[in-house]
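Weekly sync, protein design subgroup
Attendees: M.S., D.O., the rotation student, P.L. (late)

Item 1: inverse folding check
M.S. brought a backbone from last month's batch and wanted to see whether the design step gives back something sensible before we order anything. D.O. pointed out we never logged the input encoding, so this time it goes straight into the notes. Structure tokens as presented (242 positions):
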């Protein structure tokens, strides 16, 4: 008769806990999709999972913790897409363009959470969130910024004194247009029918100003968009990316 080691018991407990947490997060995302932010409550999650509220509270202390965890998972996927973009880009300009597409595609894959990023990162919201979940968000932000700064640092196109300015400027532009898209700003009334295309045209003007070398693969908006979607789809287990 085989004895079960303490390590195996702990491992099984951890696995059961992880599976339960995944179900809770899946239910929370489903509630966001079906009912929006107002429909996401701890009781609604309990009802959808058939767990008691007490069980839900063993994993998350409040709905703000749940939302922060969902945003963190969304950010983890974004980091993975950024790494794919960096691995497939040719030269600094092309990599910047592909990484920018990574932000857009990540938001399209899960629009329900992408539109809540700004809210979840606000100090008022974060004051309600447990430290471990705050740390998760901080680590994602650091991962993204380190990749952005690292990309600019590793290339010879940009003078050293412009690296941080360039990295911040691009990062700020990208989050700005993502907020516009995620929250359905009515940009057509302002004469901007396709904010993505205007962003990319503005991005090239910005990169030109930094002195980034031009190339033959980054300037056609439609072509680069198709290329980015193909690259990310191949690394996304061939799940369709629209």
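Designed sequence read out in the meeting:
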């Amino acid at each position: 008769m085989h004895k079960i080691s303490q390590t195996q018991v702990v491992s099984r407990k951890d696995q059961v806990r992880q599976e339960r947490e995944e179900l809770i997060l899946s239910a929370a995302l489903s509630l966001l999709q079906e009912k929006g932010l107002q429909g996401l409550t701890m009781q609604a999650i309990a009802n959808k999972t058939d767990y008691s509220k007490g069980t839900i509270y063993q994993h998350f202390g409040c709905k703000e913790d749940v939302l922060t965890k969902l945003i963190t998972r969304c950010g983890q996927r974004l980091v993975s897409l950024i790494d794919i973009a960096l691995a497939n880009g040719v030269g600094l300009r092309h990599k910047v363009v592909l990484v920018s597409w990574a932000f857009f595609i990540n938001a399209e894959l899960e629009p329900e959470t992408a539109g809540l990023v700004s809210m979840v990162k606000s100090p008022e919201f974060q004051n309600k969130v447990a430290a471990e979940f705050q740390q998760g968000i901080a680590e994602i932000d650091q991962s993204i910024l380190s990749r952005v700064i690292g990309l600019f640092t590793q290339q010879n196109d940009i003078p050293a004194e412009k690296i941080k300015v360039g990295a911040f400027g691009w990062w700020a532009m990208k989050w700005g247009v993502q907020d516009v898209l995620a929250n359905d700003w009515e940009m057509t009334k302002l004469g901007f029918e396709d904010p993505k295309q205007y962003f990319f045209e503005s991005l090239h003007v910005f990169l030109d100003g930094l002195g980034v070398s031009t190339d033959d693969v980054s300037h056609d908006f439609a072509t680069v968009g198709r290329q980015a979607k193909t690259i990310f789809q191949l690394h996304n287990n061939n799940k369709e990316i629209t």
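Discussion: The chain has a mean pLDDT of 87. The chain has two domains: 1-59, 64-234.
Action: P.L. to compare against the previous round before Friday.
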